[in-house]
Amino acid sequence: MPEDRIRGVALDYPEAVRLTNPTNSLLKGEVDDRYQYSRENKDNQVHGWISDNPTVGFWMITPRNEFRTGGPHKQDLTSHVGPIALPMFVSTHYARKDVGMKFKAGEQWKKVFGPVFIYLNSASNNQKSALWQNTKSQKLEAGHTIFHNHQISLIPTNGAQSVVNYFGQNSMPAAHAQVGLAPPGNEGSWQYESKGYQFWSHADGEGNFWIKGVRPGNYNLFAWVPGTIGDYKYDPSIGIAPGSNIKLNNLVYKAPRAGPTVWEIGIADRVATEFFIPDPNPSLVNHLYNGFDKFRALEHTIVGFNPYNYMLKHINKMHIYVRIAGLGNTGCGTATQKYILAKTSCTL
């Protein structure tokens, strides 16, 4: 409840408050912070509030996200205590000024934000779960309506695949690659884009992808493949006109390599699953995020390590703290220096 924050104790920044005398006594001692409820743009579609008496839901529905800042993986705010429900359009949260909009003198610019739907529903007998299920169905209906108003698509040739070429191995399908259209730029520039639109798709297990509902304009095709480092960019740029149905040939991505991979710790998939999550300070807990499986690090000392003739014993997890002794500078680390390797590859 809003009054819980007023009675609480503000922490190092005003958004974070320890609840000292909450309406619900089970929440006493927990920390409320609006940044704890952030979601990636691609998942930030439905959020809101449910009241107890009467049982009424207030929801923010955003079925598409092509207008948002920083691409599908940038995180942003949702709903938080106030009660507040935010339809985020533009922000520099978690990315600072690098994703902020910049304009030159006299520059003309136009962009459509949304659509965003505000949806209210109610239920009898305190059936809160029914409100949530009903709201999710409304999200699907809203997305279906918008899609049929934008019948423009980018579709690969029949049987074509987006292919990733691993160093030293045969080419293989870029299974479950993230493929998108974004304003022209360098590889990975979509992560800093804020003034235009982005349209992303998730490839299937064979690398086939379809991008539908694209606004007319000039784009580059970008992609990245889970488990493979680097960003892909297709040249030349692609012009989308009303009613377009564009087919591409096979796309091949050659991941950057300087030699064979000696070891790999973690997965290059742009999520933090492999990172160590320490136990929180008991006075700074939010039980909403307790109880999940979390990575625990093992620590090993590797002495006399030969990168071309090695054996790692007694390691039962891929995600470890590593201390290398007597190795010298390998380009991936320095001897006797303790460092964390996660979500990366070491290539010698």
Q: Structural class given helices, strands, pairing?
A: mainly beta
Low-pLDDT residue spans: 157-170, 296-348
Number of strands: 25
Radius of gyration from the alpha-carbon trace, in angstroms: 24 Å
> Whole-number average pLDDT?
75
- First-residue to last-residue Cα separation: 55 Å
Write up this protein.
With 348 residues, this protein is mainly beta. The protein has helices spanning 2-7, 128-147; strands spanning 9-10, 16-18, 31-33, 39-40, 46-50, 56-61, 75-76, 79-80, 84-85, 117-122, 153-154, 162-165, 172-173, 178-182, 199-202, 211-212, 217-224, 232-240, 245-246, 251-254, 261-265, 299-303, 321-325, 338-340, 344-347. The chain is built from two helices and 25 strands. The strands form nine sheets. Strands 15-14-17-18 form a four-stranded antiparallel β-sheet, with no helix packed on it. A hairpin with a 3-residue loop joins strand 8 and strand 9. It is globular and about 60 Å long.
Give a topology summary.
Elements: H1 2-7, E1 9-10, E2 16-18, E3 31-33, E4 39-40, E5 46-50, E6 56-61, E7 75-76, E8 79-80, E9 84-85, E10 117-122, H2 128-147, E11 153-154, E12 162-165, E13 172-173, E14 178-182, E15 199-202, E16 211-212, E17 217-224, E18 232-240, E19 245-246, E20 251-254, E21 261-265, E22 299-303, E23 321-325, E24 338-340, E25 344-347
Parallel strand pairs: 11-19, 12-20, 22-23
Antiparallel strand pairs: 1-2, 2-3, 4-7, 5-6, 6-10, 8-9, 11-16, 12-13, 14-15, 14-17, 17-18, 21-25, 23-24
Give the tags.
mainly beta, 2 helices, disordered C terminus, catalytic activity, globular, Immunoglobulin-like, 348 residues, Rhamnogalacturonan lyase domain-containing protein, 3 domains, three-stranded antiparallel sheet, four-stranded antiparallel sheet, carbohydrate binding
